[in-house]
C-alpha cells in the first residue's frame, strides 16, 4: 500500500485491490482501507465471484509506491477471520508529491 496526501487528507491506497481509505491521519486512512478490503473479500466470497477479489491499481499508484519511502509503522499483516484468509508481508510506503521548488525537478 502507499500513503499520500490529497489536500488535507491522508490516502491509504491498496495496490492489489485498488481500494482507498482516507482520513486526517495515516492510521485513520489505513483503518478505512482495511474496512474496505474486508468488505471486498466478504462480498467476493459471498457471491462466489473471486475474479472480483483482486483488481490492480493504476500504474501511477504503483509508481508512487516504487518511489516512496518505506513506512515500517504500517500494518504487517491482516487476518480475515470469517473467510479464513490471512495476508502477510504487507509493505507500505509514503509518497510525497514533488513541489515545483524542488531543485531535482529542474530541467536542463
Mean pLDDT over the residues = 79
Order of helices and strands: EEEHHEEEE
Question: What is the helical fraction, as a range of percent?
Answer: 25-40%
Continuous helix count: 2
Question: Uncertain spans, ≥5 residues at pLDDT below 50?
Answer: 104-108
| Terminus-to-terminus distance | 34 Å
Number of strands: 7
Biggest pleated sheet: 5 strands, mixed
- Compute the number of structural domains: 1
Structural class: alpha+beta
Q: Give the C-alpha Rg.
A: 16 Å
Q: Taking strands numbered 1, 2, ... along the chain, how are they ordered across the largest sheet? A: 3-2-1-7-4
Proportion in β-strands: 25-35%
Characterize the overall form. Answer: globular
Structural write-up:
- By secondary structure, this protein is of the alpha+beta class.
- It has one domain (2-97).
- Helices cover 29% and strands 26% of the residues.
- It has helices at residues 26-47, 59-67; strands spanning 2-6, 9-14, 19-23, 69-70, 77-80, 85-88, 93-94.
- A five-stranded mixed sheet has the order 3-2-1-7-4. It has a two-stranded antiparallel sheet with strand order 5-6.
- The longest helix is centred in the middle third of the chain and has 22 residues, at 26-47.
- The chain starts with a strand and ends in a 14-residue tail after the last strand.
- The relative contact order is 0.20.
- The model is unreliable at 104-108 (pLDDT under 50).
Amino acid at each position: 500500500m502507499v500513503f499520500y496526501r490529497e489536500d488535507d487528507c491522508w490516502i491509504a491506497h491498496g495496490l492489489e485491490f485498488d481500494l482507498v481509505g482516507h482520513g486526517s491521519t495515516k492510521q485513520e486512512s489505513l483503518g478505512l482501507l482495511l474496512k474496505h478490503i474486508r468488505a471486498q473479500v466478504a462480498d467476493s466470497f459471498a457471491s462466489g465471484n473471486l475474479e472480483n477479489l483482486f483488481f490492480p491499481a493504476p500504474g501511477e499508484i504503483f509508481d508512487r509506491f516504487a518511489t516512496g519511502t518505506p513506512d515500517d509503522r504500517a500494518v504487517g499483516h491482516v487476518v480475515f477471520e470469517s473467510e479464513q484468509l490471512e495476508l502477510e508481508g504487507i509493505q507500505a510506503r509514503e509518497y510525497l508529491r514533488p513541489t515545483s521548488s524542488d531543485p531535482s525537478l529542474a530541467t536542463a
